[in-house]
């Protein structure tokens, strides 16, 4: 057996083989009469030395195996992915838009903290200066990272009050943060990255944009015909729609990977300077949220208690906006909403003995009920407890 690296991979000695080799070597040196009964000093020493050497062999084998992203984990997967230019996405906080009230022209400085009376241990830090009476809405982010759900109208407390600032509210639900990217998620992106050179341009741009920090979702369209298509794309053009990430990072990826001479669609325009100091205008669109209303019809059972209707609403919101933590990650760009898709979180929960769901409908306006709602090409369906009605019979 050849020990070490070879054409077939790596071959190492195991503990029992090392001990056997030690015994054979010592008998060759001191005679076959040498005993290796476990109680003898030489057997004890063999065991001590062999175990340390076996650990070194196994460490080398683990290092070799972990060079493959399909088998590496933790920090080793980070290192392997870094070689490919892919970095683990960090945990992010939940972002909310705040409406502040008080004395006109009062400057609320960036860093001002707010919280929710319903969850006072979660703090929201204002990202930029807010000018009361001038600024309409200002962004704030939780000081704690992770998937923190923030329903509309729940940020209501000023943590460090001062003169001129009287009130705070978040008119819409927050954009839920995320936990640090898991090994399985990073492994998928890392493997996709090495396939990029052989992919079509659209797939290459999609993969590159999805790898940008803080990007949660991407859709890339191509119109390779000679006529303007149904979504307003000019002939021979591309259209990228992105959720998250900075304008500059997004524009750079599109510039680096798009076809020469390809026109672009989008309301966002960012100038990118090439190596020859020439400026190129890169266009794309930002994903926008659109409210979807849900009407749930239930028949109560003996176990029904006050607050079960609120639990139904919250379960739907969490499932639709954040996913189930297994295979469903919530609604993405342009994904239509089917009423039946919203049944899982309320038909398999712990309070199922308190009600039966008799029907469920969705609506784009809270009035007209339907089995499905179609969202726009750059829209993401957004759900809030305020837009869910539970009809009890």
- The residue ranges in which pLDDT falls below 50 over 5 or more consecutive positions are none
Helix content: 25-40%
Total strand segments: 22
> What structural category characterises the helix and strand content?
alpha+beta
User: What is the H-and-E element order?
Assistant: EEHHHEEEEEEEEHHEEHEEEEEHEHEEEE
**Biggest sheet strand line-up:** 9-5-6-8-3-10
**Total tally of structural domains:** 4
Distance between the termini: 76 Å
> The biggest beta sheet, please?
6 strands, antiparallel
Q: Would you summarize the structure shown here?
A:
The chain is of the alpha+beta class. Helix content is 27%, strand content 29%.
Describe the model:
It contains 8 helices and 22 strands. It has 393 residues and is α+β, with helices and mostly antiparallel strands. The protein folds into 4 domains: 63 residues; 77 residues, Elongation Factor Tu (Ef-tu), domain 3 (Beta Barrel); 88 residues, GMP Synthetase, Chain A, domain 3 (2-Layer Sandwich), CATH 3.30.300; 104 residues, no CATH class. Strand 1 and strand 2 form a beta hairpin. Helix 3 packs parallel to helix 4. The N and C termini lie far apart (76 Å).
């Amino acid at each position: 057996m050849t020990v070490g690296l070879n054409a077939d991979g790596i071959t190492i000695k195991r503990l029992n083989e090392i001990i056997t080799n030690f015994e054979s070597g010592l008998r060759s040196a001191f005679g076959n009469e040498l005993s290796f009964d476990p109680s003898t000093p030489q057997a004890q020493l063999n065991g001590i030395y062999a175990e340390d050497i076996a650990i070194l062999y196994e460490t080398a084998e683990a290092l070799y195996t972990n060079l493959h992203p399909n088998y590496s984990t933790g920090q080793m997967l980070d290192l392997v992915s870094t070689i490919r230019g892919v970095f683990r996405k960090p945990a992010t906080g939940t972002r909310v838009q705040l409406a502040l009230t008080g004395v006109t022209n009062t400057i609320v400085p960036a860093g001002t903290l707010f919280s929710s009376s319903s969850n006072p241990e979660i703090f929201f830090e204002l990202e930029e200066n807010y000018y009361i009476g001038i600024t309409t809405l200002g962004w704030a982010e939780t000081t704690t990272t992770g998937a923190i759900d923030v329903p509309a109208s729940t940020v209501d407390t000023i943590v460090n009050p001062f003169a001129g600032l009287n009130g705070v509210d978040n008119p819409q639900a927050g954009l839920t943060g995320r936990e640090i990217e898991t090994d399985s998620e990073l492994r998928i992106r890392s493997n996709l990255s090495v396939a990029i050179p052989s992919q079509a341009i659209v797939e290459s741009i999609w993969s590159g944009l999805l790898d940008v920090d803080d990007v949660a979702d991407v859709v890339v369209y191509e119109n390779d015909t000679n006529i303007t298509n149904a979504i307003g794309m000019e002939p021979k053009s591309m259209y990228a729609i992105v959720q998250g990430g900075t304008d500059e990072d997004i524009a750079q990826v599109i510039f680096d990977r798009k076809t020469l001479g390809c026109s672009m669609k989008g309301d966002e325009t960012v100038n990118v300077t090439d190596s020859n100091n020439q400026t190129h205008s890169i266009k794309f669109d930002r994903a926008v949220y659109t409210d979807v209303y849900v009407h749930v019809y239930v028949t109560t059972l003996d176990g029904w208690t006050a607050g079960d209707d609120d639990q139904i609403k919250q379960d739907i919101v969490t499932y639709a906006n954040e996913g189930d933590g297994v295979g469903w990650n919530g609604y993405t760009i342009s994904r239509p909403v089917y009423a039946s898709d919203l049944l899982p979180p309320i038909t398999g929960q712990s309070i199922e003995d308190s009600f039966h769901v008799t029907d469920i409908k969705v609506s784009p306006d809270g009035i007209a009920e339907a089995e499905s709602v179609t969202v726009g090409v750059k829209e993401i369906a957004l759900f809030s407890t305020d837009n869910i009605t539970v009809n009890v019979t």
